[in-house]
TrEMBL record:
<dbReference type="InterPro" id="IPR001789">
    <property type="entry name" value="Sig_transdc_resp-reg_receiver"/>
</dbReference>
<dbReference type="InterPro" id="IPR011006">
    <property type="entry name" value="CheY-like_superfamily"/>
</dbReference>
<dbReference type="GO" id="GO:0000160">
    <property type="term" value="P:phosphorelay signal transduction system"/>
</dbReference>
<keyword id="KW-0597">Phosphoprotein</keyword>
<feature type="domain" description="Response regulatory">
    <location>
        <begin position="4"/>
        <end position="113"/>
    </location>
</feature>
<feature type="modified residue" description="4-aspartylphosphate">
    <location>
        <position position="52"/>
    </location>
</feature>
<protein>
    <submittedName>
        <fullName>Response regulator</fullName>
    </submittedName>
</protein>
């Protein structure tokens, strides 16, 4: 059963908001990482990871997401700059555009957890998916 979320986000207020939404749904947050190096400390521990594409150490989020996905996490990319959403979506669930409404964020979190648990239905509208996006 999905329990452990990782937030990879360099903006503290945004990370806190996401953390509150995850906890409101009854899931645990392993931690918040603002850099790719810090995120790697959680490799293999997260069931689901919400990963900003632009971190404190640059545009390293897509590489972080691919590594987390390769180690079993369901990954959702995040970005406030839709121009940066030019990444390979294979192995990840899709991406959300920040800011995102609380209700939409809750739906994306619940969907990602359900994919991890193997009981997912249709993805929520707020989760953008490329044609090559396929859940792990």
């Amino acid at each position: 059963m999905c329990q452990k979320f990782l937030i990879v986000e360099d903006r503290l207020l945004t990370a806190w908001s996401i953390e509150a939404a995850i906890m409101d749904l009854g899931f645990d947050v392993l931690g918040v990482a603002a850099t790719s190096c810090h995120a790697m400390e959680f490799l293999g521990q997260a069931d689901v990871a919400l990963v900003d594409l632009d971190l404190l150490d640059g545009s390293t989020g897509s590489a972080v997401g691919r590594l987390l996905a390769a180690h079993g996490a369901q990954v959702v990319y995040m970005s406030a700059d839709t121009g940066t959403i030019n990444v390979d979506f294979r192995g990840v669930l899709g991406y959300i555009v920040k800011p995102i409404a609380d209700a939409d964020l809750l739906q994306v979190i619940a969907f990602a957890a359900s994919v991890f648990d193997g009981v997912a239905t249709a993805p929520p509208d707020a989760l953008n998916r490329s044609t090559s996006t396929k859940p792990l």
